[in-house]
From TrEMBL:
It comes from Kalanchoe fedtschenkoi. GO terms for cellular component: cytosol; Golgi membrane. It is found in: Golgi apparatus membrane. This is Vesicle transport protein GOT1B. Belongs to the GOT1 family. One of its GO terms (biological process) is endoplasmic reticulum to Golgi vesicle-mediated transport. Pfam families: Got1. It comes from the Eukaryota. It is a multi-pass membrane protein. The chain crosses the membrane at residues 12-32, 38-58, 70-87, 93-111.
Length: 140
């Protein structure tokens, strides 16, 4: 049996990850503000590293099957830092989809259990989409 105990380190990591997503979203809403997007990226990456551990994070990003996603995400972060946030966010989005495509089935089940969003994601057309593409990696 797997234990999902939430110690303080995981709580801090999830908080940093959440703030990272929030700052990235805020940077996009505020017309691709590169400072907010860069801060969101740093918080997101550090939150993931704290949540699952540095060794596991490095192993995840350095897997052979995740190499394209890692390079795209890193290049996107670089473009955000040098002042091209639109190109950077497009590259990061591609890298994010490639990196985390193996988690989509888990995310789909989680989202379907959220009270208001769950109703939307349980509609037949949306469920058919998740059933169709749920267990596959995104082809690159």
């Amino acid at each position: 049996m797997v234990s999902f105990e939430m110690n303080d380190r995981k709580k801090i990591g999830l908080g940093l990850t959440g703030f990272g997503i929030f700052f990235s979203f805020l940077g996009i809403v505020l017309l691709f503000d590169k400072g907010l997007i860069a801060m969101g990226n740093i918080l997101f990456f550090s939150g993931v590293a704290i949540t699952i551990g540095l060794k596991s994070t490095l192993q995840f990003f350095m897997k052979r099957q995740n190499f394209k996603g890692t390079v795209a995400f890193g290049a996107g972060f670089f473009f955000v830092i040098i002042g091209w946030p639109v190109i950077g966010m497009l590259m990061e989005a591609y890298g994010f989809v490639v990196l985390f495509s193996g988690f989509w089935p888990t995310i789909a089940v989680f989202v379907q259990k959220i009270p208001i969003l769950g109703w939307f994601f349980q509609q037949p057309s949306i469920r058919a989409f998740f059933d169709r593409y749920g267990g596959r990696r995104v082809p690159v």
